[in-house]
Design goal:
Blueprint (H helix, E strand, L loop, with lengths): L4 H13 L2 H8 L3 H15 L4 E4 L2 E4 L1 H25 L7 E8 L3 H14 L3 E8 L2 H9 L5 E4 L8 E16 L19 E5 L4 H12 L5 E6 L2 H9 L4 E5 L4 H5 L3 E3 L7 E10 L6 H26 L8
Parallel strand pairs: 3-4, 3-5, 7-8, 7-9
Antiparallel strand pairs: 1-2, 5-11, 6-9, 6-10, 6-11
Helix pairs in contact: 1-2, 1-3, 1-4, 2-3
Length: 315
């Protein structure tokens, strides 16, 4: 088969999005160009790679099998590019970074500082909607590094903690529990609790905490977005457990209040992770060192300021 890496990239994007239009947007090319590449690829392979139902595309059986090999070829191609980058200066290079959505509230500021020091490094960011999605990106070789709250056990990785990650219970303005000190975990029982979806690191931390406290809460709603959960708490739909790193603006604006629940904040860690079998390119290695050196100091100052804010019952 006379295949091109361009065709493979287009194929994997269409497979990911299930749509020619969305793949074209992700690749910054036109929809007809995507369709043409897929048509040429299917001609080379000699098999239909997608089942077409109205506007939705889904992988055929042959397409699912071919996707495995396409990802392997693209990973090998990127490994070759990374190897050649080691012979170039560090003011050039590409860093593909993946992270859970919770991390975006602080990570983008760290990335801005990193980019100031290395303006020649091109940054490509992949925001995963939850931990499982991020693990999939890392396993598939689609990202160089992952910033996450729990290192994956499903795959062999090198994960290094670089900063504390506090999780806190929050309530909307005017809630009966705000400004009450030293509340037991049983205080949560009288109110609906909003929770993240299964597979979320925040959901796992919440379940572990409640089980240790022998508390069976009254879940009101499962929400698959950190931002939506935050807005639901502000709207008065219930209490929630959120990363302290995601609620700075809401605390300062008085929209949310941190509850002083015994045993909280739940202290977790932020990790930067890579595949153990994969050697990092210089650009990715530079960011790894940067976040290990600067992440803890920057976030510690950020957390101290928030926990002393009037919107926190722990102030």
């Amino acid at each position: 088969m006379n295949l091109s890496f361009r065709q493979l990239r287009v194929f994997t994007e269409v497979a990911r999005h299930g749509s020619v239009l969305r793949a074209a947007e992700a690749l910054h090319i036109t929809s007809p160009a995507v369709s043409m590449q897929i048509k040429e690829l299917e001609s080379q392979v000699g098999l239909r790679l997608f089942d077409r139902e109205k506007r939705r595309l889904s992988l055929s059986t042959a397409g699912e099998y071919f996707l495995v090999h396409a990802r392997q070829l693209l990973a090998a191609h990127k490994a070759a590019e990374d190897g050649m980058a080691r012979f170039q200066r560090l003011d050039r290079g590409l860093l593909t970074l993946g992270f859970v959505s919770t991390a975006q509230y602080f990570l983008l500021r760290l990335l801005a500082r990193f980019h100031d020091e290395h303006p020649g490094i091109e940054l490509r960011l992949r925001v995963a909607h939850n931990r499982e999605h991020l693990v999939s990106l890392l396993h598939g070789g689609e990202i160089d590094l992952a910033v996450m709250g729990r290192p994956p056990r499903e795959i062999d990785t090198r994960a290094e903690a670089f900063a504390a990650h506090p999780l806190v219970f929050v309530a909307p303005a005017g809630h009966p529990l705000t400004h009450q000190p030293h509340l037991p975990a049983t205080a949560l029982l009288g109110y609906p609790l909003l929770v993240r979806e299964s597979g979320s690191g925040t959901r796992a931390a919440l379940e572990d905490f409640l089980a240790a406290q022998h508390v069976v809460p009254r879940p009101a709603m499962e929400i698959a977005s950190n931002e939506t959960l935050k807005q639901a708490v502000i709207a008065g739909m219930g209490l929630g457990l959120l990363s302290l790193h995601t609620i700075g603006l809401e605390l300062r604006g008085g929209l949310l209040h941190v509850l002083d629940i015994a045993g909280t904040p739940l202290m977790r860690s932020w990790f930067v992770a890579q595949l153990s079998a994969r050697q990092l390119a210089p650009a990715a290695e530079a960011f790894r060192y940067f976040v290990l050196e600067h992440g803890e100091v920057w976030l510690a100052a950020h957390d101290a300021a928030l926990l002393q804010h009037p919107g926190s019952a722990q102030a």
